[in-house]
Amino acid sequence: MYSARQFLDADVFLTNPKTLTKLVSLSLPIVAPMLLSDGLYSNFWCGMTPDYYYERTEEYKEILNYGKTGEFTVPMVHSAVMVNINLLEAKNLAFETKRLPPGRYGGPQDDIIIFAMSANYSGIPMAISNSLLYGYILMPLEQGETVEKDYEQLTNVKVYAVNEYGSLGLKDDLRGYVAEVPKDKLSLSHIYMINLERRPERRLKMVNNFDALGLQVEYFPAVDGKKLNDDVLREIGVEFLPGYTDPYHKRPMTMGEIGCFLSHYYIWERMVELGQEEVLVLEDDIRFEPYFKRRVYQVLNDARRIGGWDLIYFGRKRLQEDDEKWIEGSDALVQAGYSYWTLGYLINLQGAKKLLAENPLKKLVPVDEYIPIMFNNHPNETWLNQFHNRNLVAWSAAPLLLYPTHYTGDDGYISDTEDSAQIDKVIKLTNDTLDSSAAEKKGDKEQLMSSKVLVESAVNARNEDELDAKNRRIEL
């Protein structure tokens, strides 16, 4: 019979209710659930140096990044560990050197290393399991770092859990010990979140994210493509760009794409009407990267100091292969190349006026085509030439601050733009000028990028730990 004891450090957060059941079912002598952090740090090693310290290996990153899944024998597990106490040898496990065999160990006085060596000397194998997403661990503070760093890491964990489970349940008797996070607008004029009224589950998840991050955000009801028809479009005054056909699907715009464009368009109009100088526009299917607020302030500080921008992507799908030039004087901003998605972007009043001045409702294309057209970085010259004042100045955060919650093919993936009715044949289109080069460069707007491609495309991310963490979260 398997009898287990588990030790759990205070900086561990097990979020999967199946954790204990899974670990017990493995019937392993010593096993640890793999935990994620903001970087390469986890609760296991794959290599140990002759003097008992951590040794980085390729297998470590492969396991951590879910390149392979299962249970793997490793020389070290710590922080969250299950031990089969029925093993006779288990009595030799120790955290103190005095309980190790005399004369065998001369390494550091570190409890986790001593435990690993006691298992080694006793012939008890240790394993790490990454069969499930078990939970998270905080990275140890470096010398000179304050408890504020731990609070930021806790916020990251809360956001991860919200994205995974939708909300964090809190028992009533604990509510008094958890203070509400003060909310602000990131020093901006306003923050809008676009959401369809018939998608309350997405809205709730976003509200839970905003609560965890301390963001003051206004819900902006999206224009629902299901409520659009030819008569409504005529009443609004919508006309379509002659020759437009989706480069991947070879089809006209869908009603969902029209509704998406109108949702962003009406926010630009509101900005001008209210004189809002700087606005963050968010969609409702996004996940926030770690240390989101701190990194936003870095982007804002650089953008305001340097000046000259109209729009800054916080999240996007980058479509150009060429490297994008860094904005001089910043290590957080690049010049935006041809990009898809409007997950989240910062726009100023001048940028909103530029986007409205071209009267885009009279030559409508999807919003994530229109924005690159307006900053004059689009592969279809025929489309470009039908817009005259392409003087929008668009930058991008580097690395990005936002990513989609789901990609095509993921469980739970829903597209209200792609999976909707196309415009009726009553609205005439002349599809005679499609530039084939655009089709070659674009691909499906919602297509899943492999983690390798995404990491390679994030040429601006200079920190290896950050890149690997991004890669890992995408795979989840």
TrEMBL record:
Keywords: Glycosyltransferase, Transferase
Domain of life: Eukaryota
CDD domains membership: Glyco_transf_25
Residue ranges constituting the Glycosyl transferase family domain according to the UniProt record: 190-370
Coiled-coil regions listed in the entry: none
An MF annotation (GO) of this entry: transferase activity
Family: Belongs to the glycosyltransferase 25 family.
Protein name, as recorded: Glycosyl transferase family 25 domain-containing protein
